[in-house]
Write a structure and sequence with these properties.
- With 70 residues, the protein is mainly alpha-helical.
- It contains 3 helices and 2 strands; from the N terminus they run αβαβα.
- It has helices spanning 10-25, 36-49, 58-65, and strands at residues 30-33, 54-57.
- Helix 1 (10-25) packs across helix 2.
Length: 70
């Protein structure tokens, strides 16, 4: 998603996240990531670009499935 490049190359990070979001949107309205950096970057770019997709963090999904309050 480009999150690790965000501080040094913000334009590249935003472009990469936008590309990943558009790819995901072609097959689903949902996107799951296990990386907190990706979760943040993809969510930020989705809001800026007004890309209607739900982004989920895998550890949160697992915790909820285990009945833990998140």
């Amino acid at each position: 998603c480009g999150a690790m490049a965000e501080s040094a190359y913000p334009d590249f990070a935003n472009w990469t996240a936008r590309q990943r979001l558009l790819e995901a949107k072609e097959i689903s309205n949902n996107l799951v990531t296990s990386c907190s950096g990706c979760y943040h970057n993809l969510g930020r770019v989705a809001r800026w670009e007004k890309i209607d997709i739900s982004i989920y963090d895998l550890p949160t999904i697992v915790a909820e499935a285990m009945g833990l309050k998140v």
